[in-house]
Design brief:
The complex is a heterodimer. Chain A is an alpha/beta fold. Helix content of chain A is 39%, strand content 25%. Chain A has helices at residues 3-7, 48-55, 80-83, 99-110, 115-128, 145-156, 175-192, 203-208, 227-232, 236-243, 245-250; strands at residues 8-19, 22-33, 37-42, 63-68, 71-72, 84-87, 163-167, 195-199, 212-217, 220-225. Classes of the chains: A alpha/beta, B alpha/beta.
Chain lengths: 255, 378
């Protein structure tokens, strides 16, 4: 138990991932500190989701090492649900289960507990992410986009995992709902002491909730640091990303 | 001390002090449940309960909720309850948990089992009527689309039709040939085996010829097509429905029946008679091989006997049924596909329903045709 392992929740070293002849991630290294919210930005199709899916073991890697909570990751690990919770882009709720059963699923599979307690925990989680208890009996196909994200977050948090992966949590939400969602993630992160790894394009989320932001370009992390530092970065892609027309329009105060 | 959660209860007169210790986390849930149950009686007996959380080494939502539940239980029925010694880094979580589960929705009473049976029966009856309506609606919609195409032949989706023909017709030939060949061979073998006992071996050829051409050829092929292509249609249309592709088509001013369903059903109607013909020939060929190697009948004799035994009428009776069976399979498959709701489970259920229903209807239709042909003397 070295000092480094205590400090970092995720350590990625020299990661190489590719499909066929195409290399998506090229000797990428990234450290996520314990208890921080790290935002990951990058071009569409630039490998952000690939990086996330590689860390959680859904995509095989061609080289490099990944350590999560000091444990090296090799393929699919047992008891993964207790290590991390994952919010997929489309929610990925089980369509044949009700909302409540979806949230209970990780509990049921990993723990031995009474149905009564399981119901209470599920409702507690739903209320924590801002849903009403009666929403628990709905099916995923009956939910709006925002509700789907909230339920998916409740499911990801079901076992209170120390690490939370979010794949574009605010995409497809209106600015108010997105703002609420950011606040929610911030609150939960503080209350539960989570480490959050967030893939996002939402500049508002990056500025408001993220402690640090990492920029992924050409298969590497080209810049990492608090938002302020990234805005100062000289890397051409990072400049284009944060100082493009759209970004400037949104954040005139950040010039 | 740190590895196992504990719950120390110190009663002093009317008051009870509870001191939870160690990690109150989800991984220890069974111990936690046992612990809180064990102090239940003590809590009920005391008038004032204090929960001292200073001994807790780790806490998550589940543990926090169990503690909150204990304190709520203590606080109910007018007793006093207090939580003290909450460490700073747990206070946020405890505050959060205090907000939840305040309004549990009223549990719905378990319904009367007899009534449930009756209501299911009623629903099934109404559902059956709905099935008939849907079938007729789809038939009508197809008919209208056909009229539209007849009026303006250029609106027919030719590419789609050819693609479907390739998929459900051309690509189905190998498996259809294999199965019908085996069926023909089996019928011939059974015929030789049993007819031999009373010296009527040569009538095996009559049996094979009539059975295959009138009934089995088309029936087996129709059942195989229902299983192979009908299910594919249902699954395709169902997942298109799930992903709102069908809605997208409608909003572009295109009729899904015209674009998706007509080419599919038309392809089935064209392909099934052809497949039935090929299947029948394969079955006759299978019968012939068995006749030669098992029944000791020379191919020339087999062909000559076949020539005497069967007529064009037998062939017509079989092949005339094929397009109607294809229509039934296509309509059932497509309308079941359109009934798929949002979930993956519903897609599976609808696909099963589609195959079961179309096989059932194909056999019923075959029976009706048998009566019809018998009454007109074919």
């Amino acid at each position: 138990m070295g000092e480094a392992q205590e400090e970092f929740a995720i350590r990625v070293r020299d990661l190489v991932v590719g499909f066929g002849r195409q290399t998506v991630l090229d000797h990428l290294s990234l450290d996520v500190r314990r208890g921080e919210i790290l935002g990951l930005v990058g071009a569409s199709g630039g490998g952000k989701s690939v990086l996330m899916r590689t860390i959680i073991g859904l995509i095989p890697r061609q080289g490099g090492t990944i350590e999560v909570m000091g444990q090296p990751i090799g393929g699919r690990t047992q008891g993964a649900a207790t290590t991390w919770g994952i919010l997929f882009q489309q929610g990925a709720l089980f369509s044949s289960l009700t909302v409540r059963q979806n949230v209970q699923f990780p509990l049921r599979e990993n723990l031995v507990l009474s149905q009564e307690l399981m119901d209470e925990i599920a409702i507690a989680k739903l209320e924590m992410v801002g849903l009403r208890p009666q929403d628990g009996d709905k099916y995923p196909s009956e939910l709006s986009g925002g509700m789907t994200k909230r339920v998916a977050l409740a499911r990801a948090l079901a076992l209170d995992p120390p690490i939370l992966f979010l794949d574009e949590p605010t995409s497809g939400l209106d600015p108010i709902a997105a703002g609420d969602f950011d606040t929610l993630i911030g609150t939960l992160q503080k209350t539960l002491g989570l480490t959050v790894f967030m893939v996002t394009h939402d500049l508002a989320s990056l500025t408001t909730v993220c402690d640090r932001v990492a920029a992924l370009a050409d298969g590497k992390i080209v810049a990492i640091g608090p938002m302020r530092e990234l805005l100062q970065s000289e890397h051409p892609w990072v400049r284009a990303y944060f100082h493009g027309k759209r970004s400037q329009m949104l954040q005139p105060q950040m010039r | 001390m740190n590895s196992e959660p504990l719950l120390l209860a110190t009663p002093s007169g009317d008051a009870l002090e509870l001191r939870p210790q160690g990690p109150w986390i989800a991984a220890n849930v069974s111990t936690l449940e046992m612990l809180s149950r064990s102090v239940g009686a003590d809590v009920d007996r005391s008038r004032a309960v204090t929960l001292d959380m200073s001994g807790i080494s780790a806490l998550d939502t589940l543990g926090a909720w169990m503690l909150e539940k204990l304190s709520r239980k203590a606080a109910s029925s007018g007793r006093s309850a207090g939580i003290v010694g909450v460490a700073d880094h747990f206070s946020g979580l405890m505050d959060e948990v205090r907000q939840v589960n305040r309004h549990t929705p009223a549990a719905t009473a378990a319904p009367n089992p007899v009534l449930v049976r009756l209501s299911n029966l009623g629903k099934a009856t109404i559902g059956a009527r709905e099935d008939v309506t849907l079938f007729l609606q789809m038939l009508g919609a197809l008919f209208m689309a056909m009229i539209g195409v007849a009026r303006r032949p250029r609106t027919l989706r030719l590419t789609s039709l050819v693609y479907q023909l390739d998929r459900i017709g051309w690509q189905a030939i190998p498996i259809v040939v294999l199965i019908t060949f085996l069926i023909g061979a089996i019928i011939a073998q059974q015929g030789f085996f049993h007819f031999r006992r009373f010296g009527a071996e040569s009538y095996t050829v009559d049996m094979v010829g009539i059975l295959v051409l009138r009934e089995l050829g088309v029936l087996i092929v129709a059942i195989m097509v229902a299983g192979r292509s009908g299910s594919a249609y249902t699954a395709e249309l169902g997942s298109m429905k799930m992903r709102e592709e069908i809605d997208a088509l409608s909003t572009m001013g295109l009729d899904p029946v015209h674009v998706l369903i007509l080419p599919r059903v038309l392809a089935l109607v064209i392909a099934l008679p052809i497949l039935a013909f090929i299947g029948s020939i394969a079955a006759l060929y299978g019968g012939g091989l068995v006749a030669q190697f098992y029944g000791g009948m020379a191919p020339a004799i087999y062909i000559a006997r076949l020539h005497e035994a069967i007529s064009v009428t037998h062939f017509e009776v079989g092949i005339l049924k094929a397009p109607f069976m294809a229509l039934v399979i296509g309509i059932v498959a497509c309308s079941e596909g359109l009934r798929v709701k949002g979930s993956a489970e519903s897609l599976g259920r609808q696909t099963t329903t589609s195959v079961v229903k179309s096989i059932f209807l194909v056999i019923v239709l075959d029976g009706l045709f048998a009566i019809f042909f018998a009454s007109i003397g074919m």
